[in-house]
Amino acid sequence: QVQLVESGGGLVQAGGSLRLSCAASGRTFSSYAMGWFRQAPGKEREFVAAISWSGPITSYADSVKGRFTISRDNAKNTVYLQMNSLKPEDTAVYYCAASTSYTGGPHPRSYDYWGQGTQVTVSS
């Protein structure tokens, strides 16, 4: 069992930056690929980024590539999402998720555990 708690969301102006954190419980954090997803009002949950067990493999949605960076610190049981050059269309609730697969990937059904989410609002 893995419990995930996101933090770091908030209100930011367009062009600004935020760093989201996701703290995981349990001693097997390094055995999970981690992903970030987001869901805007009235829209389906969409993939943002994922990182493999030990971090060498990352993947990103085209909409955030070059602006967002996913990273992890297995010693701290934490995964991060650095978000730069934020746009109003990035406004959503952001969720982190854990997957027993090696890379995680873009499909929500590949993930076994989910956090409660943190709100990110980007004003124009």
Write a brief caption for the model.
The chain is mostly beta strands and 124 residues long.
Characterization of the model:
The structure is a single chain. With 124 residues, the chain is an all-beta fold. Helix content is 0%, strand content 48%. The strands form two sheets. Strands 2, 4, 5, 6, 9, 10 and 11 form a seven-stranded mixed sheet that branches.
Name the features.
124 residues; 7-stranded mixed sheet; 0% helix; 4-stranded antiparallel sheet; single chain; 48% strand; mainly beta; 11 strands
Order of helices and strands: EEEEEEEEEEE
Q: What's the count of strands?
A: 11
Q: Can you count the helices?
A: 0
Q: How much helix is in the residues?
A: under 10%
| CA-atom Rg in angstroms | 13 Å
Distance between the termini: 40 Å
Structural class computed from helices and strand pairing: mainly beta
Shape: globular
Calculate the mean pLDDT score and round it. 95
Q: Low-confidence runs (pLDDT<50, min 5 residues)?
A: none
Main sheet properties: 7 strands, mixed
How large a portion of the residues is in β-strands, by DSSP E? over 45%
Set down the secondary structure blueprint.
Layout (H helix, E strand, L loop, with lengths): L3 E4 L2 E4 L4 E7 L8 E7 L6 E6 L6 E3 L7 E6 L4 E6 L8 E8 L13 E2 L3 E6 L1
Parallel strand pairs: 2-11
Antiparallel strand pairs: 1-3, 3-8, 4-5, 4-9, 5-6, 7-8, 9-10, 9-11
